[in-house]
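Recall from the previous chapter that SMILES is a line notation for molecules. Here it describes zinc ion.
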Amino acid sequence: MSHSLLKKILLLIFLCLIPVFFSSPHIISKTAAMADSEFQPNIIVLNYHKIDNKNISLSVLPQDFDKQMAYLKNNDYHVITPDDLYENLEHNKELPANPVLITFDDGYKDNYVNAYPILKKYGFSATIFVITSFLDKYPNYLTWDQCKELKKHGFYIESHTVTHRSLTSLSNKQIESEIVNSKKALDERLQQDTHYFAYPTGTYNLYIAKMIKNAGYRAAFSIKYGNVTNDSNIFALERIPIFHTANTFKSFYRRLNYVPLFEKIGWMKN
Ligand SMILES: [Zn+2]
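With both inputs in hand, we obtain:
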């Protein structure tokens, strides 16, 4: 967010709260806490699914996606990798200003056909969480060869389990198989150490998060709405879903710019 916009919003909120200040000392201390949290990293993790022309909420139109990427490019956002995010959260490694991580869930073929050329145009890369048993199997999902090519161009291909079943509905043995076998497939096929995981349908619990850690992952992404900060659980990281809506750019802009503020004053966490 630009400083002048942030100042305007803070001023507006301040003006709205003046009557409250005089009646409630509690609110004043909460405002002071807000100022402290300004110095925390505020990392935006965007979450997409499909980039195509279908008129469903999971599909962002290619021209809308292009407009959103242009906005990031022209407004001093810096696209980071999951390793950058991990190094910052675990080892305090510095991030560029306005860091954004772009993620896609499920591994649809349109990520390669439609999103990849647009991302390439802006010099961006992204992270795709794939369902490993779907690759080379269903025509509307990526192939392993496409994953290899994306990886060669700086994309991260990470785990979204083997079969995309909600983990909280499975037995421990099944959960283990989803977590371990998807990592194994990715490690072998892409010659990598797969470190990142996204929960299918966003469902998880502390026990599952522990299993993810034990399997050798460094971090896991949920669909909990919000920005990643120092307070985030590294095995349940927040994301901002971007959907196709009646005015996709307007809702993209709102989600990108207003979430941190809403979150700080406790309106939109979860
Ligand atoms: Zn999914």
